[in-house]
Structure to design on (486 residues):
RNA sequence: GGCGUCAUGGCCGAGUGGCUAGGCAGGGCUCUGCAAAAGCUCCCACAGCAGUUCGAAUCUGCUUGACGCCUCCA
């Protein structure tokens, strides 16, 4: 099995991956809060982990990939209203209608981007009982306290024996000094404390019964409970966006420690932000672009529509831990590179083998693995894939050659990395009219051929230029004319 | 204010103490009726200032700038 190194946010180091249980990987990724459409920035994080999931599967691990749906509603501020209920009131819908609507949207979007579904996709509302039990355990262990029907985690007490800040590299004393004074009416003993259970006011729509009265679970508890339930007290990988590192993931560690006395996660992986115009994409600021807008081209920041696979390629060209800035120029450039890659992939199916090989396919294949083994370095992998693009074209020109065995290896490796691991798709516009379109274009190619034989350049160029205007690129080669659709 | 990350060629983006990814755009050549496509090739960058070193863009310090977190956030 390939030796994989990954960057652990807990230690800030690249470490060799050694699973808790040999041959198995338990991976938990914080999913979306389903109160509005996912934007491209949300998608980036999930896509990074989709690629990581795919790579683990390819390496032969048995992976249980858990990605939750947050449908219980997190608090937005110190008011008692949470996101889900807020939106529900706005649209005159039941909270679960909102949840259903945006969960469906989430799934549809990810499907278009060719995501593999997670092994388990648990919901917060489906685990209220488990959350209540966890709170009882934490209370019993003396690390939480109840005030007026709410239960808070006692961060200072926890910090006496454990390190609150172990992940985000924060010092609790600094945090105390620098906490903003939001209001004076909080029930918390200390501003650092966070809610495990929050009392629901009468007008609060999402509400459940509990030993502390009617209320709803706190911000961070669901992930602790669900990851423990499905992956165990100690599991391999926990992922999420960089912006969740603090406080969300820090609180998860504290809760798990308080419940199970175990540091729950071996490797913390954090994907970096997708920015637009140099600023983080966020639902709240309006600085974002929706996947549907990418697919339709209907957004002021882009000049045309892009396929999901082009957007995926654009994101895979950057490392998951780097900030990536979205712009029209950047995705246009990515689209051209993507097209060139896909055309070479198609061509690779047609090129023929020779008696001898002039290229080192096995060494190249190993370089592809080395790229992925180095903290899932997809941009380096793509650089290597473009080396193969060059090879395929040279073989096609008769300037290099491969034996049947090497050619099969090349094709297999491309298939593996381009489609299985990066999750790209070569989108053929195979609608009902594709045969007709092909027939039409072939007819025009014939007519142009005739015109060229008659030296009727005006006609032949007209055919060529009108077709390119329609997005049909004619390619004159030694063996005749072919075409590609843009 | 505190904590942290990052500053790479026209653009996007990797990476390493010396051998200097890749994509896009641009120049030249091959091919072509002219082109396009494809191939070859050129353009050798690492914010600024000091320091460590035989040697740094890569290590250290400072400066400047950007971003992220500290409040829901992928």
């Amino acid at each position: 099995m390939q030796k994989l190194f990954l960057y652990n946010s807990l230690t800030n180091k690249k470490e060799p991956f050694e699973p808790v249980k040999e041959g198995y990987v338990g991976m938990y990724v914080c999913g979306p809060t389903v109160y509005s459409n996912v934007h491209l920035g949300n998608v980036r994080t999930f896509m990074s982990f989709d690629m990581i999931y795919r790579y683990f599967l390819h390496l032969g691990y048995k992976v249980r990939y858990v990605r939750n749906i947050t449908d219980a509603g997190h608090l937005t501020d110190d008011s008692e209203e949470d996101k889900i209920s807020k939106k529900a009131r706005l649209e005159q819908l039941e909270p679960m209608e909102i949840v259903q609507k945006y969960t469906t949207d989430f799934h549809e979007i990810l499907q278009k981007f060719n995501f593999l579904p997670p092994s388990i996709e648990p919901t917060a509302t489906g685990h209220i009982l488990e959350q209540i039990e966890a709170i009882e355990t934490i209370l019993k262990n003396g690390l939480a306290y109840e005030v007026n029907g709410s239960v808070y985690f006692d961060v200072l007490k926890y910090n006496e024996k454990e390190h609150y800040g172990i992940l985000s590299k924060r010092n609790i004393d600094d945090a105390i000094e620098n906490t903003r004074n939001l209001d004076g009416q909080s029930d918390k003993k200390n501003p650092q404390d966070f809610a495990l259970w929050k009392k629901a006011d009468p007008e609060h729509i999402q509400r459940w019964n509990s030993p502390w009265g009617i209320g709803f679970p706190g911000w961070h508890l669901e992930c602790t409970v669900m990851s423990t339930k499905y992956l165990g007290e100690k599991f391999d990988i926990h992922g999420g966006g960089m912006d969740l590192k603090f406080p969300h993931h820090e609180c998860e560690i504290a809760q798990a420690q308080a419940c199970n006395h175990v540091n729950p996660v071996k490797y913390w992986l954090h994907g970096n932000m997708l920015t637009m115009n140099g600023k983080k994409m966020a639902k709240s600021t309006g600085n974002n672009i929706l996947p549907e807008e990418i697919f339709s081209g209907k957004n002021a920041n882009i000049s045309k529509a892009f396929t999901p696979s082009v957007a995926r390629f654009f994101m895979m060209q950057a490392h998951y831990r780097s900030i990536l800035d979205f712009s029209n120029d950047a995705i246009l450039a990515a689209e051209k590179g993507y097209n060139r890659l896909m055309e070479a992939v198609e061509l690779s199916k047609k090129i023929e083998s020779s008696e001898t090989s002039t290229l080192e396919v096995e060494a190249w294949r190993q370089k592809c693995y080395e790229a992925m083994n180095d903290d899932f370095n997809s941009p380096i992998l793509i650089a290597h894939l473009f080396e193969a693009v060059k090879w395929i074209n040279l073989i096609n020109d008769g300037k290099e050659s491969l034996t049947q065995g090497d050619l099969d290896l090349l094709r297999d490796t491309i298939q593996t990395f381009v489609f299985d691991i990066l999750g790209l798709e070569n989108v053929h516009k195979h609608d009902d009219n594709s045969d007709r379109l092909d027939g039409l274009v072939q007819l025009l190619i014939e007519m142009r051929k005739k015109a060229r034989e008659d030296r009727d350049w005006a006609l032949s160029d007209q055919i060529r230029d009108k077709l390119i205007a329609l997005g049909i690129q004619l390619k004159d080669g030694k063996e005749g004319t072919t075409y590609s659709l843009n």
Summary: The radius of gyration of chain A is 27 Å.
